[in-house]
C-alpha cells in the first residue's frame, strides 16, 4: 500500500463506517500492518493508505524484537472517555520527518469492533492513548498539525514544505 502524503485529499476526509466484516477487511488489515512496519510507523489509519473506511492498526512494538506480538486492530473506533493531559512529540507517516509537541488526553477508553465485527473496549495511557487519539483523528480527517496553535501550525507547515521536497527527491532516487 502507498502512504498518502500531506496534503493529499484522502487525509482530509471523514472515513466511512465498516458495515461488512469479511475477507476483504482482513486483507486490508494485514496489508496495513505490512505497510506500517515497512515504513517504520506505530499506527496507521485507513485514510493514510487511501481507504476511506474506519480501520486503524497499531503496534507500539513496531521495529522492536516483539513486533507483531501486540497488534491492535480497531474497526469503527470511537473514543468514549478522555482524562488528563499530556504534551509530547508526535510524528506521522503522512508528514514524513515532521515532529511537533501535541497536547492530548493522558488516558482514553475506546470502543471498537474487531475483524469479526465483535464489540470490545480498549483503554490506553501515555503512548497508547496518544496513538489511539492520533489514528482516530485521521479517520475524522484530522492530522496532528491541525491540533497545533495557528502560529505553531504555520511554522510547522513551512518546515514541512522543506522536508517534503527532500522526501520527494529521496523517493525519486529509488
Report on the structure:
The chain is α+β, with helices and mostly antiparallel strands. It has one domain (9-173): Peptide deformylase (Peptide Deformylase). Helix content is 32%, strand content 25%. It has 3 helices and 7 strands. The strands form 2 sheets. It has a 5-stranded antiparallel sheet with strand order 1-2-3-6-7. The protein has a two-stranded antiparallel sheet with strand order 4-5. Strand 6 (107-113) and strand 7 (119-125) form a beta hairpin. The longest helix is centred in the last third of the chain and has 24 residues, at 150-173. The radius of gyration is 16 Å and the shape is globular.
Offer a quick outline of the entry:
This protein has 174 residues and is an alpha+beta fold. It has 3 helices and 7 strands; from the N terminus they run αβββββββαα. The radius of gyration is 16 Å and the shape is globular.
Per-chain topology:
Elements: H1 23-39, E1 43-45, E2 55-58, E3 72-83, E4 86-90, E5 100-104, E6 107-113, E7 119-125, H2 126-139, H3 150-173
Antiparallel strand pairs: 1-2, 2-3, 3-6, 4-5, 6-7
Descriptive keywords:
174 residues, EC 3.5.1.88, Peptide_deformylase_sf, 5-stranded antiparallel sheet, alpha+beta, 32% helix, metal-binding, two-stranded antiparallel ribbon, 3 helices, Peptide Deformylase
Molecular shape: globular
Give the SSE order as H and E letters: HEEEEEEEHH
CATH topology: Peptide Deformylase
**Overall pLDDT:** 95
Poorly predicted ranges (pLDDT <50, ≥5 residues)?
none
Amino acid at each position: 500500500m502507498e502512504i498518502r502524503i500531506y496534503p493529499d485529499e484522502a487525509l482530509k476526509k471523514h472515513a466511512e463506517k465498516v458495515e461488512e466484516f469479511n475477507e476483504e477487511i482482513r486483507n486490508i488489515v494485514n496489508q496495513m500492518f505490512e505497510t506500517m512496519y515497512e515504513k517504520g510507523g506505530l499506527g496507521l489509519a485507513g485514510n493514510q493508505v487511501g481507504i476511506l473506511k474506519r480501520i486503524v492498526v497499531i503496534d507500539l512494538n513496531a521495529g522492536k524484537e516483539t513486533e507483531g506480538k501486540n497488534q491492535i486492530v480497531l474497526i469503527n473506533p470511537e473514543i468514549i472517555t478522555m482524562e488528563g493531559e499530556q504534551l509530547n512529540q508526535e510524528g506521522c507517516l503522512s508528514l514524513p520527518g515532521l515532529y511537533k509537541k501535541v497536547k492530548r488526553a493522558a488516558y482514553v477508553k475506546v470502543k471498537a469492533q474487531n475483524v469479526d465485527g465483535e464489540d470490545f473496549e480498549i483503554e490506553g495511557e501515555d503512548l497508547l492513548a496518544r496513538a489511539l487519539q492520533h489514528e482516530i483523528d485521521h479517520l475524522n480527517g484530522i492530522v496532528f498539525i491541525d491540533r497545533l496553535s495557528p502560529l505553531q501550525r504555520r511554522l510547522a507547515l513551512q518546515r514541512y514544505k522543506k522536508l517534503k521536497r527532500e522526501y520527494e527527491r529521496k523517493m525519486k532516487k529509488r
